[in-house]
Structure formats: structure tokens, C-alpha cells
Amino acid sequence: MASNVNPTVRRRRLGQELRRLRELKGMTAEEVAERLLVSQSKISRLENGRRSISQRDVRDLCGVYEVEDQRIVDSLMQMAKDSRQQGWWHAFGDIPYSVYIGLETDAESLRVYEPQIITGLLQTRAYAEAIIRGGSPEASEADNDKRVEVRLRRQGRITAETDPLRLWVVLDEASLHRVVGSRQVMREQLEHLIEMSQLPHITVQVLPFEVGAHAGINGQYSILEFADAADSSVVYIEGVTSDLYLEKPLDVQKYTVMYEHLRAQSLNVDQSRQLIERLAKDYAR
């Protein structure tokens, strides 16, 4: 594995390999859990990459799966060791969506639907500060400051000079009218949005009010895709107390089709930019 692959992706790939070995053995996660005297949920978390995998876990699982090739065992053990390294985001302490950041850091492309706010990767500092403080009124100032810095650090994926993240964003028109921070903050935010939308790897479309009911009516979601064929696409749905990650092909396909409908219902790129420019001028008055 390449040395620059982040720990989240390492855990995910290792989990996929462990699942493959279990299925080759013809065993269920429940059967494996019984053999190792652990919970079935632990086996599931190890396989979906949501939990750190120790070398002892790998050794025990390889024993259950009767893996005889020591080279395979050694490779998996090394993957487990590498997966316990820390990504840049760990320096900021306990970040509730750290799994997502790890996936976003390694993704090749990202498609986002946002019904309420400007998506995080395209936020200005002032807008991000207002959104984070407004959304976490009980958090300490230090915690909110940390979240702002993490959000701004994440934006390095779309400003990188080489291999920047390909970003496609569909914004509900409501996100442009919601006054976050102040009218000046909104003007600066929309001007920044216009500037970023002119980059060749960033596409911004607006879903107008006049569309009415639409394919994204149930809320925000993102679709992450990866360059390595071994990494399946992931649908990410952010929650208040927990997040949802969908990786089954049928789930990803359903959300992908929904996104295509959203893109078709939205204003085209030029029309979207014209609307954003008009609203930015309105905020300047």
C-alpha cells in the first residue's frame, strides 16, 4: 500500500480484505464472533473500517479463517499497524466526523446536496464561524474555534495545485437567502462562491424554489468516489449525534440516481452563477 494513504482508508481496505476472507471461509459474522468470544458488532465494525484494528485482531481472525500463506498474514498485520497511525485531523482532538474527514481526504470526487447552508468546503471563515457557533450553541468557544480550523484545513483538498478534489455541489436556493452572520458575511460568502465556481474542477448549481418537491427533499447527503478501484463509493449522511455511511452498491446507486435528478432539476451553471451574483449585489445594499 502507498505510504501516503490515510489511516481511515487503510482501515477500510483492511476491513474489506477481512470480510473477503470470512466469506471465502463461508462463515457469518455471528459465527466468527462466537469463535473469538466477542460481539458480532465488533466483527462488523472491524469489517466496515469504523473501528481501529489491532494486530492481535488480525492474527485471531486469520487463525479462524485458516490463512496458511504467511505472506498474506504479514501483509494484513502491517496494514493493521499502519491503520493505527494518525491523520492530520487527529491533532485537533476528538472530531465527531473524523471518519468522514479521512474519506474526504482520500476521495477523488465528491458530489454534495445542501438544502440549508453553503457546503463546508466552499465556506469563508466568517460564514463558517457563524454556522458552527449557531449550530453548536452549547459548545465552548475553544471547541467551536477548533471546528472552524478543521473546516478551513479541509478546504486544502479543493485548492491543491495537483490532483485537487473534483467537487460538484447542488445548493438549494434557501441556502442563498438564509442570512448567516450578517448581510456583509453573506455578500462575501456569495462572492467567494462565485469565485470558486469558476475553477475547472468545481461545479455549483442552484436548485430553485420554483421546482417544488424534488429528489433531495429528505435532506443533505454526499457521495464520495475514489481513484483506487478497491475503494467502493460511499454515501455520507450527517446526523446530530451520529453519522450514516452507506457502501452497499444498491444504496450508492439509488443516491446517485437521486443526484442526477437534482442536477437535472437545478439551474445550469451559468444560470446558477447569475442568480448568486444578483443575490450578492442585493446583500451589498
UniProtKB/TrEMBL annotation:
Domain of life: Bacteria
Residue ranges the record marks as coiled coil: none
Pfam families referenced in this protein's UniProt entry, alphabetically: DUF5753 (PF19054), HTH_31 (PF13560)
Domain HTH cro/C1-type: 18-72
InterPro entries reported for this sequence: Cro/C1-type_HTH, DUF5753, Lambda_DNA-bd_dom_sf
Gene3D superfamilies linked to this entry: lambda repressor-like DNA-binding domains
Entry GO MF terms: DNA binding
CDD domains tied to this protein: HTH_XRE (cd00093)
Protein name: Helix-turn-helix domain-containing protein
Organism for this UniProt entry: Streptomyces tuirus
